């Protein structure tokens, strides 16, 4: 059975004409494909079936029929691979991979005869928000600041460009004492920065970067909390270093991502391009492009593994991307980006998730994708409760 056959079966599931034998065949075929083939299959399905729809069916009903067919696979738990432990996990993955099509349904106007759907709070996604703390302690709220020169520090102009990002311009006088700025990103924010040497930095929500106003020393050292993506300006005679707690990343010229949130169990350093040394105590690991150094925060152990670069850097491109992610990991990202408190009352039985979600969707749309896998939610002001429906006796 090739991919087109599977798409035909998904089409039958959408139209309600799939037989039990065909449904079993669909489940069997889905569990055998590897991760790359599965992703390709879902993208192909989205492009062909979901965009065409089924004649006579409202879009929301089409998705509900697909969801119902796949959800029925959960009734026959079975080991399928080391990657997908049960049909329930596979169903969870499938439903989230179909998120590309789900956005299409969620964002379209509801059918006019649906009048009993309650209105949910419209919690908007995050945006460009940051607070800059200058060397003298002055704080500038960048999202409300106008463009142009914001301050002058020892001959260096601090600029907010027309593009909205922060930049530095000018030369520091000889013998000038080192001055530091800190760019802090709140919950529900992100921001771009060009450092004095031309290095470009993307900062994610709940992150901060401390750096000198001018790199006058023998190296270029900055300190990071949270998550950032760096595109380092090449200066072979002046190494670039990023300090993250008691760990250090040494750079010559490269593109890389560091994720170092306080509420995560690990610090991930992922190399996209160039060369990178990651130091943890007496241990040093050299990374090649496509590799990731993982620092266990409980044991301080440092290991290297292959990385999915697209997944790691998806936030920079405006997406959440998950690959066998559990629900708590997803909720931590959602909480930071939408600036909401999330109470997770599930008991870890929601399976694993795989797929992409546009970070510009309102919060309710993201939660509806999770709800399609049996995860329920309530929004009360700035607080979201995630729970599972109690099973009937």
Descriptive overview:
The protein folds into 4 domains: 3-107, no CATH class; 123-217, no CATH class; 228-308, Jelly Rolls (Sandwich); 318-388, Phage tail protein beta-alpha-beta fold, CATH 3.55.50. The chain has 393 residues and is an alpha+beta fold. It is globular. Residues 53-63 and 73-119 have low confidence and may be disordered. It is built from 9 helices and 24 strands. Helix 1 (3-15) crosses helix 2 and helix 1 packs across helix 4 (59-71). It starts with a helix and ends in a 5-residue tail after the last strand.
Number of helices: 9
Summarize the biggest pleated sheet: 16 strands, mixed
Give the N-terminus to C-terminus distance in angstroms.
Answer: 40 Å
Shape: globular
Q: Hey, roughly how much beta strand do the residues contain?
A: 25-35%
Low-confidence stretches: 53-63, 73-119
- What is the gyration radius calculated from CA atoms? 24 Å
Summing up helix and strand content along with how strands pair, one would put the structural category as alpha+beta
Helix content: 25-40%
Count of discrete domains: 4
Overall residue-averaged pLDDT value: 78
């Amino acid at each position: 059975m090739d991919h087109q056959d599977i798409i035909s079966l998904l089409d039958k599931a959408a139209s309600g004409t799939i037989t039990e034998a065909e449904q079993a065949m669909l489940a069997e075929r889905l569990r055998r494909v590897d991760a790359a083939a599965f992703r390709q299959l879902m993208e192909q399905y989205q492009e062909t079936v979901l965009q065409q729809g089924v004649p006579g069916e409202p879009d929301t009903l089409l998705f509900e029929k697909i969801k119902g067919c796949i959800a029925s696979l959960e009734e026959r738990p079975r080991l399928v691979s080391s990657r997908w432990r049960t049909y329930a996990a596979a169903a969870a993955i499938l439903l989230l991979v179909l998120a590309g099509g789900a956005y299409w349904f969620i964002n379209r106007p509801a059918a006019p005869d649906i009048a009993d759907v309650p209105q949910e709070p419209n919690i908007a996604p995050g945006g460009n928000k940051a607070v800059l703390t200058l060397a003298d302690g002055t704080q500038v709220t960048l999202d409300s600041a106008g463009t142009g020169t914001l301050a002058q520090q020892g001959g260096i102009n601090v600029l907010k460009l027309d593009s909205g990002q922060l930049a530095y311009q000018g030369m520091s006088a000889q013998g000038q004492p080192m001055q530091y700025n800190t760019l802090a990103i709140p919950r529900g924010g992100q921001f771009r920065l060009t450092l004095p040497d031309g290095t470009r930095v993307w900062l994610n929500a709940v992150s901060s970067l401390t750096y000198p106003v001018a790199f006058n020393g023998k190296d270029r050292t900055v300190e990071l909390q949270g998550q950032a993506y760096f595109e380092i300006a090449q200066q072979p005679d002046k190494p670039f270093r990023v300090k993250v707690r008691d760990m250090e990343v040494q750079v010559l010229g490269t593109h890389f991502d560091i994720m170092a949130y306080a509420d995560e169990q690990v610090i991930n350093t992922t190399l996209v391009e160039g060369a990178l040394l990651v130091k943890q105590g007496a241990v040093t690991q050299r990374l090649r492009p496509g590799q990731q150094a993982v620092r266990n925060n409980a044991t301080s152990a440092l290991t290297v593994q292959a990385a999915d670069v697209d997944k790691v850097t998806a936030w920079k491109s405006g997406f959440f991307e998950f690959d066998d992610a559990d629900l708590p990991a997803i909720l931590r990202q959602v909480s930071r980006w939408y600036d909401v408190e999330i109470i997770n009352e599930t008991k870890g039985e929601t399976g694993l998730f795989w797929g992409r979600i546009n970070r510009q969707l309102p919060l309710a749309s993201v939660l509806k994708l999770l709800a399609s896998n049996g995860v329920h939610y309530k929004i009360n002001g700035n607080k979201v409760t995630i729970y599972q429906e109690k099973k009937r006796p």
